[in-house]
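Quick one: structure tokens for this chain, please?
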Amino acid sequence: MINLITRIYNKVLKIIFQFLNRFLIYFKIHPKVLDSHASLQVIIDKKMSVSRFGNGELDIILGQHEGFQKYDKRLKERLVEVLKSDTKNLAVSIPDVFHDHSRLNDRASKYWTRQVAHYLYHWNKFTIKDKLYYDSLMTRFYMDLSDKVEFPKKSLQLFKMLWNDRDILIVEGKGTRLGYGNDLFDNCKSIERILCPAENAFSRYDEILVTTKKYAADKLILIALGATASVLAYDLSNGNFQAIDIGHLDIEYEWYKMGATKKQAVPNKYVDEANHRKVEELLDETYLKQIIFKL
């Protein structure tokens, strides 16, 4: 009996949200988001930190699991805090998909059309009305786009400006290996790495934050830790560090260099979206010397 009542309740709730989302879409009531390249330019000019939110972070806020991060109540609360924050030196970023899909290929456009139809109410609920957000898909500069030449070229030029001639500290999951085996960071001054758990990194969050602050002085911090990165970039920005939730940028760059037309495994790198989670240990001396701490 209880199960029947629960199913009926969930069905009614789903219908209500479908109606609300159609209403919001029809009247174009959605968060304001700066486009990808404009977002990057402002971040460069103002030396802002970046916290990014996508469907995975929203899933956690709504009480669900997200890929390699299990649901965590504290993480949910922190994500809501960041998403509703209005810190001047932090670019809170959400997908630029609410009004224009012209840059996306057909597959990605259909995907985001479904996502908006299901979740627009929640995007409105957890964001600040009339606040200008930045595009969290700035790091997704290749695979989902129709233009796989000029748009990626411009994105890469802007990203490289972020770390040009700077010392960078990479905080990443074990096996992520940002920039390993490619020239993405060839124009930076130096690279150091803190390795964190590849999955459920938030379970070690306090240690990650303390350790990052210990080694972060005068460095640009690049974070690839799933939903944990959104919170970490926020906390670091409040500590007067510049921290970028860099997400899947390196994997997108690998696909770009391959000319890949679908998401696929990349040798020596953890790629959750291609179900490639087991990677071999690296013996490369240059890479190993960059690792200054392991959690």
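The first helix runs from residue 2 to 26.
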